[in-house]
Amino acid sequence: MNYVSNFPIVDAGNGVNRQVLSQNEQLMVVAFNFEKGGEGTLHSHPHIQSTYVESGSFTFTIDGESFDVKAGDSFVIPANSVHGCKCHCEGRLIDTFTPRRDDFL
Question: What CATH number is associated with residue 77?
């Protein structure tokens, strides 16, 4: 069995790219790299999402409530919540999804 995933870096638009780091049916880990001013547009999905801010600073909005995060912060986004973010300082987010986001494969 191959335990190492070699997924390509994908342009996600709006100053953001993403790369799947690891995955199986129940779990997926994805790195999102943001340019300063990059934006994760508001969206929702049926997956529970945990976000770790590896670097940078961001304003996140979840179901209409906004808050600021910086390197070292983490939080959980419930399934089906409308959420998005704006990047204030170039940065990287590590997101974990359960179950796996098949749309990223």
Answer: 2.60.120.10
